Amino acid sequence: MTLRRLRLSGFKSFVDPADLVIERGLTGVVGPNGCGKSNLLEALRWTMGENSVKSLRGAGMDDVIFAGAETRPPRDFAEVAILAEDAAGDEVEIVRRIERGAGSAYRINGRDVRAKDVSLLFADAATGAHSPALVSQNRIGAVIAARPAERRAMLEDAAGISGLHIRRKDAEGKLRATETNLDRLGEMAQEQD
Ligand code: ATP
């Protein structure tokens, strides 16, 4: 998957709609301290499904919404769109929106989807909120200090197979539910005999 654009509105310091075009090759974002460079990377991770408020440097998820400034009132929602190209070269748009006090919603190509669908999309493309391709501040130290199981998870993310674990967990859950239903059916059949 190739990222092409990032559109932000009301996300952290990006109170006005902003559009970051990611050209082929290397894109650099430069600016003075505190101008919002890290917020851009966080917007990317957040849209990919990041739900750890700590790693988004907040106390609650609503902290990603513009909190107001001396001359600007706070916003009630934040929305970020990632425009990407999939392996087949088709455009895909992933949107995450959060309303103050009401939580997040996701869309892929205009269709409402679950957070899990977004995670799976990025996991299959060997990227995502926890992908080793996204290196935020302090992350290098965290990689060095990681336990073997955590390092294995990073390698699985990089290999694009972490989506299989999510699907396996789902399938195991369904299997357990079916077994419970079968047991119940067996009991009912016995009661009828
Ligand atoms: P540095 O170079 O120091 O790492 P940076 O360019 O990466 O800085 P960020 O850390 O991305 O900057 O941005 C920090 C700015 O974002 C701060 O000015 C902070 O007040 C602002 N900010 C963060 N969350 C919000 C919010 N919810 N509402 C308004 N502004 C916010």
UniProtKB/TrEMBL annotation:
Highest taxon listed in the record's lineage: Bacteria
Localisation per UniProt entry:
Cytoplasm
Positions with a binding annotation for ATP? 32-39
Assembly and partners? Answer: Homodimer.
Q: What does this protein do?
A: Required for chromosome condensation and partitioning.
For domains, the record's comment is:
Contains large globular domains required for ATP hydrolysis at each terminus and a third globular domain forming a flexible hinge near the middle of the molecule. These domains are separated by coiled-coil structures.
The similarity annotation says: Belongs to the SMC family.
**The protein's name in its UniProt record:** Chromosome partition protein Smc
Organism in which the protein naturally occurs? Sphingomonas hankookensis
Task: List the taxonomic lineage.
Answer: Bacteria, Pseudomonadati, Pseudomonadota, Alphaproteobacteria, Sphingomonadales
Q: Which gene encodes it?
A: smc
